[in-house]
């Protein structure tokens, strides 16, 4: 028997299916929304603990100083003057290379073809590192193997054409705060030219670590000191000295004889021989004494008779 549906029932069925489809779409959208929120939350938490960009920022700031391996100091006013000048000029050069990819926008000396770096660029580099209040007097200075000339007329440093300078390159390994200061732990990786040997294999392993100290001024962190780091380079395990091997008895005796000594057995034999010789000497002495006493006794007897 065929059951026919009334128009009202058809309408209710269509509405029910429409509500089911709408509910499915809403459920899918809610699921997508939840997954999106979770993904965004995970990314936000990861960014809170990911300091890669900050490490790179401090590597760029400190590259000039690390090149010339400054000695520890407390207070930027106490840093070695030559080291600061070297770091300021060459740090600026490296910063331009990293950020602009070259020196197309800079002039060169028409006579020597040396690169001209304006002093204002050096000041800008220093301001990011040690703060805008610090001022450095620009002048010509001598390095170990070159002269960095400052032209008062153009207010530019003349940078010699050279392969590379400095002994180390920087890698920031850790950032942490202590006693109100930001400690930036920097690993020192030797440059190829620092070894003066083409046979030396370059490595990305730091040979030492230093902590650069930054203090907060006007909402920014600026360099204020340098100290030894608690982080130490991976030391190569020293080979353990082997225990000395025990000598055989025959070797001991040979060693004693070689130094003019005697073995215990030899000593006992010598003692026995000495004792026998002593006993023989004693018996001989007693015999001689007895033989001497006999004539004396006979003489005494004759006198008494």
From TrEMBL:
Keywords: Membrane, Transmembrane, Transmembrane helix. Residues 234-245, 265-278, 292-305 have a biased composition (Low complexity). It comes from the Bacteria. Signal peptide: none annotated. Residues 226-305 are annotated as: Disordered. Residues 279-291 have a biased composition (Acidic residues). The chain crosses the membrane at residues 21-42. This is Ice-structuring protein.
């Amino acid at each position: 028997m065929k059951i026919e549906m009334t128009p009202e029932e058809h309408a209710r069925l269509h509405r029910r299916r429409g509500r089911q489809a709408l509910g499915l779409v809403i459920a899918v959208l809610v699921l997508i929304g939840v997954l999106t929120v979770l993904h965004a939350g995970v990314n936000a938490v990861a960014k809170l603990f990911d300091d890669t960009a900050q490490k790179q920022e401090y590597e760029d700031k400190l590259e000039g100083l690390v090149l010339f391996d400054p000695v520890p100091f407390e207070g930027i006013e106490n840093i070695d003057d030559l080291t600061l000048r070297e770091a300021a000029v060459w740090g600026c050069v490296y910063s331009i290379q990293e950020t602009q990819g070259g020196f197309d926008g800079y002039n060169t000396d028409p006579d020597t073809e040396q690169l001209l770096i304006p002093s204002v660029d050096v000041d800008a580099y220093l301001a990011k590192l040690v703060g805008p209040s610090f001022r450095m007097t620009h002048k010509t200075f001598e390095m170990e193997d070159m002269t960095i000339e400052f032209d008062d007329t153009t207010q530019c440093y003349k940078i010699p054409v050279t392969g590379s300078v400095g002994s180390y390159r920087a890698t920031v390994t850790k950032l942490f705060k202590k006693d109100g200061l930001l400690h930036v732990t920097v690993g020192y990786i030797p440059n190829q030219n620092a070894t003066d040997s083409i046979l030396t294999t370059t490595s990305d392993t730091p040979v030492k670590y230093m902590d650069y100290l930054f203090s907060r001024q006007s909402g920014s962190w600026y360099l204020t000191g340098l100290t030894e780091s608690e982080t130490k380079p991976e030391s190569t395990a020293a080979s353990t000295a082997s225990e000395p091997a025990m000598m055989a008895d025959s070797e001991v005796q040979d060693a004693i004889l070689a130094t003019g000594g005697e073995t215990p057995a030899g000593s006992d034999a010598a003692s026995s021989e000495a004792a026998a010789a002593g006993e023989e000497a004693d018996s001989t002495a007693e015999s001689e004494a007895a033989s001497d006493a006999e004539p004396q006794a006979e003489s005494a007897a004759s006198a008494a008779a």
